[in-house]
Amino acid sequence: MAAIIGRRDVMQAAQSTFCSSTYWTDRIGPTAAIATIRKHRRCNVGEHLVRIGRKVQEGWRSAAEAAGIKVEVGGMPPLSHFGFVHELKQEAKTLFTQLMLKRGFLATTAFYSTFAHTDEHVEQYLAAVKEVFGIVAEALQKGNVTALLKGPWHTRVSRD
Length: 160
Hints:
Largest sheet: 3 strands, antiparallel
Number of strands: 3
CATH superfamily of the domain at 51-148: Aspartate Aminotransferase, domain 1
CATH topology of the domain at 51-148: Aspartate Aminotransferase, domain 1
Strand order of the largest sheet: 1-2-3
Distance between the termini: 37 Å
Mean pLDDT: 89
Number of helices: 6
Helix content: 40-55%
Oligomer: single chain
CATH class of the domain at 51-148: Alpha Beta
């Protein structure tokens, strides 16, 4: 959605010119936007997104503590992220993604909650995270993170 706004004198000048419009005669976009806003309000979507995001953030913290690894969790709850606090943080992130994929989750160190996420989805995801954090923690402790990575891995990783 878009709007053109400005001071009255500037907007009046536009009356004598032709202004093209993205939506011109198409009412589908604005209609969909209004329907989305109404559903957001009716279903309290914002509250759901925050609740789900907080649940994931708390789950990451809990799983990291249980595994004995350090992570930094950040972002506003619906747009959460975490990072491994370790010299091999990039390798650990890659291993996390690889292991989560093996468990059926296309996951990275970010999570964006949606209205479609349910408590059951989050519980299944966090059960996998707990298991994977344990494996990552052991790999970091043993120093064999890169040995566990599938595919080509370059030992010269920029850590900037």
